[in-house]
Amino acid sequence: MSEAFQAVRREFIYILYYFDVQLRQIFWYWVIGMAIGSFISVFAKDRIHGLFAGMRDRKLGLLGIVPACLLGIASPLCMYGTIPIAASFRKQGMREDWLAAFMMSSILLNPQLIIYSAALGPVALTVRIVTCFLCGCAAGLLVFFFCRDRAFFDFDGFEERKSRDTHPNLFVRYLLNLWRNVKATGPYFLLGVLLSALFQRYVPQDVMVRIFGGNKAWGVLMAATIGVPLYACGGGTIPLLMEWLSNGMGMGSAAAFMLTGPATKITNLGALKIAMGWTRFLMYLAFVMLFSFLCGMAVNLFCP
After folding, report:
1. Which pTM was predicted?
2. Cβ 170 vs Cβ 98: under 8 Å
3. What is the pLDDT of residues 26-69, one digit of tens each?
4. CB 192 within 8 A of CB 235
5. How far apart are CA 231 and CA 166, in angstroms?
6. Hey, which of 9, 122, 183, 200 has its CA 20 to 30 A from 138?
7. Which helix (H) or strand (E) holds 257?
8. For residues 220-230, b (16+ Cβ closer than 10 Å) or e, as one string?
9. Residue 277 and residue 271: Cα distance in Å, rounded?
10. Higher-confidence residue: 211 or 143?
11. Domain limits of the chain?
């Protein structure tokens, strides 16, 4: 065999080794996350949304933002499912600030992603949950103070989707949901593992430290920025974050990435633009970038 072929073969073996190591570290988090996510989607989703709808007649005022955020995090829906359900809540007379808090937190986090994020360690998991909750609260407060007397969202044309979890046998219904979950997240998960293996093989650790490490504002800003184009699926970014954190990424930079990524997921922005209009859509993007940057800097103060 030629020397070039031997070199290619050797690199392939290295990458396969790193891929295997990364896969072993995170595989069961992905499996358990899908299992729990599908269980909540099939058996608890209506209950969660019913609790939110039931808040409508309670005089909670601004304090209603807190349970709205918590229920948004508990909701298993992705952004495409969140906007139609928010449209139905709006028709029922739900407050705009509560809707904003519910939608923001639901876009950023869900039970399945919480399980995935546990692979990053307890500190990163806590940071993710707390910052996503605070982001939802901040969105609700901004809508309350600046759009108190007028509608913030335009849900015309959005109708609540019919549930696909309709099989009469509950076990079969769960398995069908789980299979859809595997098909939706599996390719991105494997791609994320592959990218993390490539990073581990070809990107020197000192490069990651220079870009994302320490308490520097530059690292936080870079992480917030690359979260916009790079984020495609929560499960796919966890292997990358594991690799980056192990190679010197600051926790503040990771927090910024975990906020901007899902909030500006490319496939979601079109629906958000329709629901908000251009002016408020641009305000939304500015809010996400500024909040993620400030959160990243704050996290670096407490998790140096």
Report:
1. 0.88
2. no
3. 899 989 999 998 899 889 888 988 888 888 878 888 899 999 99
4. yes
5. 31
6. 122
7. helix 251-263
8. bbbbbbbbbeb
9. 10
10. 143
11. 3-302
